[in-house]
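Supplementary Methods. Inverse-folding protocol.

Structures were first reduced to a discrete structure-token string of length 154. This string, shown here, constituted the complete conditioning input.
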């Protein structure tokens, strides 16, 4: 994997023994305001061993068309994003990155696994790398199910 600034990395390096909420993100989506909730989660739980990691993705109606620099500027200036962002990546299809090849095998609360449905699908990953929960795009970051799962993992 690579960061948005094109540095090689791994989930283990970024997570650094933290609980992670991994989210495929986009700047021009109706769900983009969820960045606010993600930033709030980062601020609330970051000091307790938690981090959000964003994965920009342009696979859903071209809603993340920008360059790495444009994405970084938008996230910082518009929402104050201070959590790590990976390079723009495919989360579905033949070009799906290996991380999402694994994650899409995990079922959500209703028992459905498979492709990412849309931007802002969330995966809660424990300190040991196990997936603790999958939350579909319309589940807001501060939804009780996500907050409860984060708190239990911490």
């Amino acid at each position: 994997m690579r960061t948005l600034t094109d540095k090689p990395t791994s989930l283990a390096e970024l997570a650094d023994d933290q609980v992670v909420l991994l989210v495929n993100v986009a700047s021009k989506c109706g769900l983009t305001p969820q960045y606010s909730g993600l930033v709030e989660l980062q601020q609330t739980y970051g000091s307790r061993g938690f981090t959000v990691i964003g994965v920009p993705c342009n696979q859903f109606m071209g809603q993340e068309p920008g360059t790495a620099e444009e994405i970084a500027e938008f996230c910082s200036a518009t929402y104050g994003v201070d959590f790590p962002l990976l390079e723009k990546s495919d989360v579905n299809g033949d070009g799906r990155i290996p991380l999402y090849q694994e994650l899409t095998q995990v079922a959500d609360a209703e028992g459905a696994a498979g492709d990412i449905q849309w931007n802002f699908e969330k995966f809660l990953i424990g300190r040991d790398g196990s997936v603790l929960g999958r939350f579909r795009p319309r589940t807001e970051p501060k939804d009780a199910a996500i907050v409860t799962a984060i708190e239990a993992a911490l």
